[in-house]
Write a sequence for this structure.
């Protein structure tokens, strides 16, 4: 059985849609596997005061240019530019501006700034919240906000433009120990592609490039948008769908004017939004001509440590007050995992005096296991160029509703001539060499072996030619009926765009000495509307009642049936024999209609657990035979997927809402079926980003059975007797403690992302993140359903609402979460638990 839900990756419960293994293995693999061209000027060092204390957020500019940077929290800086200059200009409020002569390659500078005579008065002016009053930098911001709606694409009724995107990953901090490592024996040629970062000065080795060309169409009245992928080209990990999915999940576009910028599941305060006045300090430091327009330079830096903020500078043009350039660097103290540095720059072009358009958007992420300066990791770089804007062509609304096939072969087979003509920025020598280097590397046996190990960790399968063995994490289990359980399974796999797939497994219990199995097949008949036919059969032991909203899926995730560790009686298991057939179609994007039929044979799998009921002849029956058809509708607006095969991966599994409604009808006397009934289920999940306060997840489930049915067909309130956090269950409810035929259930969970704990002395450095939540359910059972019951389970329904509430600590050692849960009602139920502690592996940035 399965349900639409937000996946929380827990102990011994890893599904293919979860990204923990994909993210962790990708990061670990790249760190493990981890004739250069030089800019004309490359300088770096440290800025301090006369006592040697570092000066953070100082402005460093190459004199005679607009190329500059800002020192970090420790006063360190690095600056690289194609501009030729031998004078460096350093300034910071309260200190004398200094100009020093530098060499073209000088990265070990120590620069001492002297305090100004009026330093105390200047610092007074720009300290605390009073700095916004009469602050010329803030006045420039206010004028920019007044003119914001006059800038950009909002001015025009309709528009189109070209977008070229380049994503690159590089192994960084490459030194002699890596180059000489035995790990790379026979692959030394890859180090010919090493280069030096213009942002950090670190030596890096490119290992992956993805290029894409898009055509964007938009209309403001009514609000319509269309993005057509016209060309795509990969090198590096293109054969691994999981890693490609992870890469796409890392980089999303954002609006610089929005109050919060969402990056890596976190909401950073935008430095040019109104909310920035409470978060940043602003200092007007310089002015110059940029593209023949007089512009002002403003430096900004965070008021407090530990928050999701940036430091950097931006340029605002005079008279029109439009944003011309901006650089942003995430604070090292920000509560974000695995990302040591994050750098963003954007450049805008002026179409006329009142309209500016985004021209270039660049983002560099330094991924590492820790934030030590010399730690090795990898760069992730995305550069996007925008051009060829058209505001004259008019298009009908139907044009925007027609979606192109983004997986057509011609998109991925463009030749070099096409790419040379359609890149909005040419590849440099190192980038061009990556294609040839990776093509050569893919033929090296040692590399194929290493890449194979990474693929196993990422996909949870061991790949053979056309067949994958797995999932690996489902191999072992334990329960009171089967004892130790051994499971072996696999699937066909020829590529991410397979039109058909067969999956199967067999399992053996060493206590009941019995084999179980399941087999499922899917065939994608039509790619355009995703018409899919599925068939399956299962004969296995399952823990029913682990979710409220269910569907007749043969290979649904049911980890609680075989958790390695659990408390109490785990013998309330059912033996399910079920054959299913269904067809699904996606008439428009992210809206799926599914029609299916199933025949089930359900009996108890244990001598201590009864599913007995009284049939219409007054006889006691222990077996339930049931024929059923169901119609399901699922809508997931905003969902993004990777691949165009019969199975696809989700890019942003926790970022979109889910609406699901299912109607099932049971028939009597068809294939000796026992009961006639109707079942209606509704599921709604909605995540909310609440700015700097974190993320709220809400879930609502409603269901009702019309007709008389036995325990095997009732809705069992999902319990959880394991020691792991399982999202769709009530963590203090035992299996079959409550049953219903009508219910309404809710869940609210809020993760503050460390908003509170990172402000508390002594523990703030731990970077823990606080979670709070509540779950509840109200339900009932009709007298008719109670009357036919002859099981040894009491039909207790939560008619006065069962609820439990919890407090959690997330991000423990960056990967663990622990929840402390209290029962709020039904505290006197026999054997009930009033308090419980459960944990999970919870991987987030």
């Amino acid at each position: 059985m399965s349900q639409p839900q937000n996946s929380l990756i827990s102990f011994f419960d890893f599904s293919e849609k979860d990204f923990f293994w994909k993210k962790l293995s990708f990061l670990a693999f790249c760190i493990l596997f981890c004739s250069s061209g030089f800019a004309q000027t490359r300088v770096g060092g440290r800025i301090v005061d006369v006592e040697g204390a570092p000066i953070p957020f100082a402005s460093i500019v190459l004199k005679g240019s607009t190329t500059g940077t800002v020192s970090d929290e420790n006063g360190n800086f690095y600056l690289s530019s194609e501009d030729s200059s031998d004078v460096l200009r350093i300034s910071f409020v309260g200190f004398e501006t200094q100009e020093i002569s530098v060499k073209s390659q000088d990265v070990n500078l120590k620069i001492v700034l002297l305090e100004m005579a009026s330093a105390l008065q200047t610092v007074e002016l720009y300290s605390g919240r009073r700095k916004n009053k009469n602050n010329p930098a803030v006045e420039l911001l206010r004028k920019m906000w007044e003119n914001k709606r006059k800038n950009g694409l909002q001015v025009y009724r309709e528009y189109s433009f070209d977008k070229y995107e380049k994503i690159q990953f590089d192994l960084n901090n490459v030194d002699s120990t890596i180059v000489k490592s035995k790990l790379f024996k026979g692959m030394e040629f890859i180090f010919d592609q090493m280069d030096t970062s213009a942002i950090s000065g670190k030596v890096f080795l490119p290992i992956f490039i993805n290029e894409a060309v898009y055509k964007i169409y938009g209309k403001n009245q009514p609000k319509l948008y269309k993005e057509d992928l016209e060309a795509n080209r990969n090198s590096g990990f293109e054969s691994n769908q999981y890693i490609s999915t992870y890469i796409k999940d890392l980089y999303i576009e954002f609006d610089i004017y929005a109050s919060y910028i969402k990056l890596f599941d976190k909401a950073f305060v935008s430095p040019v939004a109104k909310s920035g006045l409470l978060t940043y300090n602003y200092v007007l430091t310089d002015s110059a001509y940029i593209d023949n327009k007089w512009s002002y330079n403003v430096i900004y830096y965070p008021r407090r440590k530990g928050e999701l903020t940036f430091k950097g500078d931006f340029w605002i043009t005079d008279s029109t007050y439009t944003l011309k350039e901006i650089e942003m660097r995430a604070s090292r103290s920000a509560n974000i995992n695995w990302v040591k540095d994050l750098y963003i720059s954007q450049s805008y072009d002026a179409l006329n005096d009142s309209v500016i358009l985004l021209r270039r958007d660049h983002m560099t992420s330094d991924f590492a296991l820790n934030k030590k300066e010399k730690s090795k990791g990898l760069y992730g770089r995305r550069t996007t160029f925008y051009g060829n804007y058209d505001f004259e062509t008019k298009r009908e609304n139907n044009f925007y509703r027609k979606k192109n096939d983004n997986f057509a072969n011609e998109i991925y087979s463009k030749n070099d001539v096409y790419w040379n003509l359609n890149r909005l920025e040419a590849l440099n020598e190192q980038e061009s060499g990556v294609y040839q280097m990776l093509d050569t590397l893919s033929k090296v046996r040692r590399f194929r072996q290493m890449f194979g190990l990474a693929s196993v960790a990422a996909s949870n399968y061991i790949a053979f030619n056309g067949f994958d063995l797995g999932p690996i994490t489902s191999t072992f289990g334990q329960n009171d009926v089967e004892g130790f359980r051994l499971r072996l399974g696999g699937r066909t796999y020829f590529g991410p765009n397979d039109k058909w797939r067969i999956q199967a497994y067999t399992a053996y219990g060493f206590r009941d000495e019995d084999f179980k199995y399941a087999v499922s097949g899917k065939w994608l008949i039509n790619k355009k509307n995703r018409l899919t036919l599925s068939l399956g059969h299962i004969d296995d032991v399952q823990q029913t009642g682990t979710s409220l909203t269910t569907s007749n899926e043969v290979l649904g995730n049911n980890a609680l049936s075989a958790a390695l560790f659990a408390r109490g009686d785990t013998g309330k298991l059912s033996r399910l024999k079920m054959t299913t057939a269904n067809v699904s179609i996606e008439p428009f994007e992210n809206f799926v209609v599914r029609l299916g039929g199933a025949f089930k044979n359900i009996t108890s799998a244990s001598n201590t657990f009864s599913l007995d009921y009284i049939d219409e002849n007054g006889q006691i029956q222990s077996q339930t035979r049931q024929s059923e058809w169901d119609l399901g509708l699922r809508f997931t607006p905003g969902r993004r997927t990777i691949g165009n095969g019969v199975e696809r991966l989700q890019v942003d599994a926790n970022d979109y809402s889910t609406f699901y409604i299912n109607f099932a009808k049971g028939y009597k006397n068809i294939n000796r079926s026992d009961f006639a009934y109707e079942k209606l289920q509704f599921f709604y999940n909605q995540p909310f980003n609440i700015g700097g306060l974190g993320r709220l997840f809400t879930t609502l489930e409603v269901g009702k059975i019309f007709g008389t049915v036995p325990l095997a067909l009732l809705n069992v309130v999902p319990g959880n007797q394991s020691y792991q956090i399982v999202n769709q269950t009530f963590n203090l409810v035992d299996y079959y403690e409550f049953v219903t035929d009508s219910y309404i259930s809710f869940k609210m969970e809020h993760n503050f992302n460390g908003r509170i704990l990172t402000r508390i002395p002594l523990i703030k450095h731990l970077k823990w993140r606080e979670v709070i939540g509540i779950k509840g359910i109200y339900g009932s059972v009709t007298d008719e359903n109670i009357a036919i019951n002859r099981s040894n389970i009491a039909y207790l329904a939560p008619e006065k609402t069962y609820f439990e509430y919890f407090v959690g600590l997330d991000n423990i050692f960056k990967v663990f979460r622990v929840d402390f849960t209290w029962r709020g009602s039904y505290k006197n139920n026999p054997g009930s638990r009033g308090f419980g502690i459960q944990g999970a592996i919870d991987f987030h940035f």
